[in-house]
Design a protein that fits this description.
rod-shaped; mainly alpha; 137 residues
């Protein structure tokens, strides 16, 4: 019985060594279905790489456009602030001019009231006098 077990013990390492050698050498035969599948995967990988490059290009263009628009927004914001400052200064000047105009108008009307009151009294007196003289004749 012992003699029968020895050949199987020797056969195990030989099979294992043979399998290892075949694994290291590789296999040069690929079935046609597997070759077609590999080619399909390669084509899909190439189209995916081309699409990725296209999307990256669009992303760069979009980022560049975003930067240009942000610069324009900053420029317009600065211009808006300048115009708001000018508008505030003009409104202040207008308010000051209105105040001065009101003061000048008040002084002018204060001077005009006594003159206006004196003039109608002088005009009414001469008109009545000739009318009475006309009746006497």
């Amino acid at each position: 019985m012992m003699g029968a077990m020895q050949p199987t013990k020797r056969l195990g390492p030989v099979i294992l060594l043979g399998a290892a050698l075949m694994g290291l050498n590789g296999c040069d035969y690929w079935p046609p279905a597997l070759q077609a599948q590999i080619e399909q995967l390669r084509a899909e990988a190439q189209s995916a790489a081309a699409e990725r490059a296209k999307l990256e290009s669009q992303l760069m263009e979009t980022a560049k456009l975003k930067d240009e628009l942000q610069a324009r927004v900053n420029e317009l914001t600065h211009l808006n602030q300048e115009l708001a400052g000018q508008n505030a200064a003009l409104e202040k000047n207008l308010a000051e001019a209105k105040t001065k105009g009101a003061k000048v108008s008040a002084k002018a009307s204060a001077k005009a009231i006594p003159k206006a009151a004196a003039k109608p009294a002088a005009k009414t007196t001469p008109k009545k006098a000739p009318a009475k003289t006309a009746k006497k004749k």
